[in-house]
Amino acid sequence: MRRVFVAFVATLLSTTTFGASPATAEPAHAKPQGPAKVAFAPDFPALVDHEWGFPLGGFGGAGKGAPVAHTPVIFVHGNTVDAADWYPVRDAFRAAGWTDQELWALSYNGLGGNSGTGLTTQNPKRDAEHMEMGWDGQVRVTNNDGNVPDLFDFINAVRAYTGSDRFVLVTHSLGVTLARKTLKVHPELRNDLVAFVGIAGGNHGTSLCPPGSEDNVVSCNEIAAGTPWLADLNGVDGSDETYGPAKWMTVYDGSGAGDPAYAGTPYAQSPALKGADNREFAGTYHNDLREEPAIIDVYRAFIEDAEKPTLRGTGGGPDPAIAPTSGDSAPVGVSARPATSFRPPSVATTAPSVVAADGQVAAPVRPANTGLVSIPTSSSGRREQGAKASWVLWLLGGLLVSGVGLVTFDRRRATRLAFV
Question: What's phi and psi for 418, nearest 5 deg?
């Protein structure tokens, strides 16, 4: 694991521009080692990664024409990992009666690493698969826009193969914004989207992309707070954060203390979406939000409720006989509460938040009479802050960015890398 950390820092340094004049675009993407494992049904069509030209990996399918009792779910992973990150979730859905014809995932950006492990749930199937694939221990960072064509192709291939135009998206971290961007670029998909679950997504920025990172680190010019990319994705006053006929849920920490991707007050509510059933699991770690069994039960129940009108043949529209999900109870052992709407940080000229040597985000100065913590987002502020001391503190503090990661300790005190 130490070798992985050193290699990733070296990659980051080699593609990062320091000094007073940052680059005008993000650094070039590092080519993946190769494709991820292709574990689809034998008759599923072969798809090709648009950026790299090799086979698109993933899992799903029992055979063309196999029956489906549920709306097919497509799982979209986060940065630096691959579809194998979803194995614990897939297995939990299987245990609840779902079949492989209804459970799908793609591996955009090729073979990923093992960094998506939670503190409470292990993924030995993924680890064994990556060993079998000859994973070299390196991680490769990607962005949203470069992977939209792959996800679009995959959604359409799953729809054609299963015979179900309707589909569900369950997304994590970078996968949240990637899936939302795909729906933005291809609005023709929206009428057939039954449900969208966004887990720990950087919908309004991430503490792993602090001011100054936008043009220096892959994906930060998309998902740093205040970027034009996020403004376009979310729409004016959040008008395009959610839309019908789909039902929307977000799952996230919300405390600013459990998930390092949204550390501190400015970022704690970033994963929430206007109009969604926003569920906070305070103090829960980034990857456990995806694969903690009791949390899986929460979002699986949400999906099963959302698909009821479709399964009853009502065409997928809202059914007044089904109660809203915002007040649903969580399973025993899960502490979840509906969250308040996200209030975007105000733009101000106060001191920036910086990452201290312990990897924590220090609270910025609070503007008078606002009740909000400011994240400076002007281009001049980004460049002046990003090229100097905050970057040095960030790297020395062990915070690996852009999809990204952090050196942290699990409950057994073993050093571990966690990536967004």
Answer: -125, 130
Could you give the 3-state DSSP secondary structure of residue 55? strand
Q: What is the pLDDT of residues 30-53, one digit of tens each?
A: 999 999 999 999 999 999 999 999
Fold annotation for 2-419: Rossmann fold (3.40.50)
Q: Which residue has the tokens 């492990």?
A: 117
- For every residue of 324-371, DSSP letters joined together read PSTTPPPPTT---EEPPPP-PPPP--SPPP-B-TTSPBPPPPPPTTT-
**Calpha distance 148→145 (Å, rounded):** 5
Cα 200 to chain centroid, rounded? 6
CB 187 within 8 A of CB 243: no
The rounded distance, in Å, linking the Cα atoms of 203 and 180 is 9
Check whether the bond before 245 is cis (ω within 30° of 0): yes
User: What pTM, to 2 d.p., does this model score?
Assistant: 0.77
Tens digits of residue pLDDT in 196-229: 999 999 999 999 999 999 989 999 999 999 999 9
Buried b (16+ CB within 10 A) or exposed e, 142-163: bbbbbbbbbbbbbbebbbebbe
Q: How far apart are CA 376 and CA 360, in angstroms?
A: 18
Sign of CA dihedral 308, 94, 110, 200: positive
